[in-house]
Amino acid sequence: MNTRVETLTITREAVITFVVLLGIASAAPLIGHQQFITGPIVNATLLIAVALLGVRDGILIGLIPSTIALATGLLPAVLAPMVPFIILGNVILVVTFGYLRHINYWLGVVSGSVLKFAFLFGTSSIVANLLINEQLAGKVAAMMSWPQLVTALAGGLLAYGFLRCTKKSQRV
Q1: Per-residue pLDDT tens for 53-75?
Q2: CB of 12 within 8 A of CB of 120?
Q3: In the chain, where are the structural domains located?
Q4: Radius of gyration, alpha carbons of the chain
Q5: What are phi and psi of 132, to 5 degrees?
Q6: Each residue's pLDDT tens digit, 120-136
Q7: 12-166 adopts what CATH topology?
Q8: Per-residue CA distances from 36 to 28, 74, 104, 134 (Å)
């Protein structure tokens, strides 16, 4: 009989890192109510989480910020139907970066950013046109278009700077 037993080892440092990154991602929507401040912070936090803790923890951290952004007003209430798609966009960024960063950090950042942008732009156009009036649909689509690409790429720059300065990741 072949039984395989795996052990899960969680270090104190990993728990502290997870809690700190979750706190940053959760607090970011509260500090500025500006997409070009909040977006790079949240995206950098997700990428740092992947580099330091792995894809699973990056995904877990990515579940929180858009919900807080909606609750605090950074994300207008009419965008509530977009929250699941924003979360999926974060998952796309995290998984893509997690896979490709082993090949090249910037390949992971750019690919993840472009895929997140394309997904959010495509879904926002559909969701907005189905759920809200035409005038608001244009604003929603604009918010979920090129700013998503810019903030994801800026988050990649922030994460790179942090990881290089702290020398926490050998793969940067």
Answers
A1: 999 999 999 988 878 777 877 67
A2: no
A3: 12-166
A4: 17
A5: -135, 165
A6: 988 887 877 776 666 66
A7: Arp2/3 complex 21 kDa subunit ARPC3 (1.10.1760)
A8: 11, 11, 26, 25
What is the rounded CA–CA span in Å between residue 171 and residue 70?
Answer: 34
| N-to-C CA span, the chain | 43
pTM: 0.87
